[in-house]
Design a protein that fits this description.
Elements lengths: L2 H6 L20 H32 L10 E5 L7 E2 L2 E2 L6 E10 L4 E5 L10 E3 L3 H7 L13
């Protein structure tokens, strides 16, 4: 007697024993055709759901615009293994500031009034993707501590 049979009181059923002898014709042109039809239906429904979500998001989205003399916080991206403001990783500050906008330079560019501690940072700030900025200006993303006011 096998261990499985002794433990459960019946023989072990393997995937080989699940099918009857006459059931071997599972794969054929009909099955492939049905699978392709199901894939088309799923793709159509996904596209419909994505378009619904996009239209909902497009209605609710608002562009960020600031005026001169507005106050705001600068976002500081936490880097793994880097101590910022005396704290490491998750506990490090996400934002520093507040700082004042002194002048609007373009649609998405502003001149900032930064304190002396941040003199190495360029006073003009824009809304651009961080990864693009890191590729173009890697020297601005060198690790270092920025003191908090």
């Amino acid at each position: 007697m096998a261990l499985y049979e002794a433990l459960y009181g019946r023989r072990c059923r393997s995937p080989i024993g699940w099918f009857e002898v006459g059931e071997a014709g599972l794969i054929g042109p009909n099955l492939v055709h049905q699978a392709m039809e199901k894939v088309k239906v799923i793709q159509k429904r996904l596209k419909l759901a994505q378009s619904r979500q996009k239209s909902y998001t497009d209605i609710r989205i608002k562009e960020l615009e600031f005026e001169v003399d507005d106050w705001f916080y600068l976002k500081v991206s936490p880097m793994k293994g880097v101590m910022t403001f005396g704290k490491k990783e998750k506990l490090s500050s996400r934002y520093i500031g507040p700082y004042r906008i002194s002048k609007r330079v373009g649609n998405v560019a502003y001149d900032l009034e930064l304190p002396q501690e941040l003199a190495t940072v360029h006073p003009e700030a824009t809304w651009e993707a961080e990864e693009d900025m890191k590729k173009r200006y890697p020297h601005h993303f060198e690790t270092g501590e920025i003191p908090v006011q």
